[in-house]
Specification:
This protein is α/β, with parallel strands linked by helices. The protein folds into two domains: about 120 residues, Urease, subunit C, domain 1 (Roll), CATH 2.30.40; about 290 residues, TIM Barrel (Alpha-Beta Barrel). It is about 30% helix and about 25% strand. It contains 15 helices and 18 strands. Strands 1, 2, 3, 4, 5, 16, 17 and 18 form an eight-stranded mixed beta sheet that branches. Strands 6-7-8-9-12-13-14-15 form an eight-stranded mixed beta sheet, with helices on both faces. Helix 10 packs across helix 11. It is globular. The two termini are about 40 Å apart. GO terms for molecular function: hydrolase activity, acting on carbon-nitrogen (but not peptide) bonds. This is Amidohydrolase. Keywords: Signal. It holds the Pfam family Amidohydro_1.
């Protein structure tokens, strides 16, 4: 009888555990909520139902309501899921192995290329990115002058169709460099004028004029796939992301593209601080790439890349922070923290990797901040998320579902060798 009783109890315990994992209606309470919009709720609570945030407020108020499952956050800090812009996540696996690279196509003008169909949800890089609080990414193609269309995707999904947050939300144009930098970072050579710059711009101008003329036809007799994919730009449905770093080149890009009425976003924008007033006046958002870099010009301040976010904020420019590539995206939050050390307010730094990114990418109605009606995608940390010394992410929820952060291969290897040599991990000590 005792054995049967134990089996029954074990059965109900397993059933209850499975039910708890599948329930889509719960309350996360006793947490410090950073909404991503500059607001902090002390001793707060988040109510989730069907993957959406249904209530946000104080624990003492929401805990009294009828939520069958209530999760005690034990004073941890809650942040909105971070969004990595301008990445090749899911398109690159091993950079030194060409067969694992799927972010570049042959050809010069490829507006019809879609990065989303090459997105690999089984990439071993993705769990390492998830572990640092980045749950969404803008996946961008490269190659040629117009490289194709990006999409905003979840970093945890069964296939690319399930991963989609916003499909083909923008087209990417790689503006030519006015100058050529010779040598390398340890031994820079002389800077030369790019003689192909003007002919390249003229060719781009002709292509845009041809595409605009084509798109004015509602039903062309002979369809051109490449031109058809440009329609969203001229009708305001999509954004044009112009990858450019030089201040003068940004001004020329605006001059060339503004007659077409496209929604401009400058990506890279290392010298955006030089024309911050112009960008604010024209309301052109910026996605800064990799603040952990040397200044572009010899006479620039050595810490200019670190100061740029604060300058843009003071001038009223809408901006986001990003890191190029794939695996290094995991340091995105710490890059924002470095900008704080150089004058950027902490709430603005958080917005630059969450709500600001969502606004620039056109997905702010779904993700980017912790608000009623938005996706219940957030992360829990025992310390300041932007501080690499104290950040300790303990849990992540994507559309209300708890993610398994132990799939991170680096964590698995760490535990493997700690166990091999019978050493105590920080978790086992606690």
């Amino acid at each position: 009888m005792k054995k049967w009783s134990l089996l029954v109890l074990l059965f109900w315990a397993i059933t209850a555990s499975v039910w708890a994992q599948k329930t889509d209606h719960y309350l996360l309470k006793n947490v410090r909520i950073h909404t991503g919009q500059g607001e902090i709720i002390e001793e707060g609570a988040i109510a989730v139902k069907a993957g959406k945030i249904v209530e946000l407020g104080l624990t003492k108020e929401l805990a009294q309501k009828n939520y069958k499952e209530q999760i005690d956050g034990q004073g941890q800090w809650v942040y909105p899921a971070l969004i990595a812009a301008n990445t090749q996540l899911g398109l690159v696996e091993v950079e030194a192995v060409r067969a694992t690279l799927d972010f570049r196509e042959v050809g010069y003008f490829n507006p019809n290329i879609r990065s989303v169909v090459a997105y690999n949800t089984d990439s071993e890089i993705l769990p390492t990115i998830l572990s640092n609080g980045i749950l969404y990414s803008q996946v961008v193609p490269e190659g040629g002058r117009i490289s194709g269309q990006s999409s905003v995707l979840r970093l945890s999904a069964f296939n690319w169709e399930d991963a989609v947050v916003e499909l083909d939300e923008g087209t990417h144009l790689w503006w030519p460099n006015r100058f050529q930098f010779t040598g390398w970072w340890a031994a820079p050579g002389p800077t030369k004028l790019n003689e192909k710059y003007r002919p390249t711009i003229e060719g781009l101008q002709l292509y845009l004029a041809e595409a605009a003329a084509y798109c004015q036809q509602e039903a062309p007799e002979k369809k051109n796939i490449k031109m058809e994919s440009m329609r969203g730009l001229f009708f305001g449905d999509k954004r044009l992301y112009v990858h450019v770093n030089e201040a003068k080149a940004m001004l020329e890009a605006h001059q060339l593209l503004s007659p077409y009425g496209v929604k401009l976003v400058f990506v890279g924008a290392a010298e955006a601080w030089r024309i911050a007033d112009f960008l604010a006046e024209q309301k052109i958002p910026v996605i800064l790439s990799n603040l952990h870099a040397l200044p572009r010009l010899e006479h620039d301040d050595v810490d200019q890349p670190y100061k740029t976010p604060a300058i843009l904020h003071e001038k009223g420019v809408k901006f986001a922070l990003s890191m190029q590539g794939s695996w290094n995206q995991r340091n995105l939050a710490f890059q924002a923290g470095q900008a704080v050390a150089y004058g950027l307010p902490k709430d603005v730094a958080l917005a630059a990797i969450s709500s600001n990114v969502a606004e620039i990418l056109g997905v702010s109605e779904q993700i980017g901040s912790l608000e009623k009606g938005k996706a219940a995608s957030f992360i829990l940390s025992k310390g300041d998320l932007l501080d690499m010394r104290s950040s300790q992410i303990t849990a992540a929820y994507l559309d209300g579902k708890l993610l398994d952060l132990d799939k991170d291969k680096q964590k698995q290897l760490y535990k493997k060798y700690m166990d091999k040599y019978e050493l105590e991990t920080p978790a086992s000590k606690n």
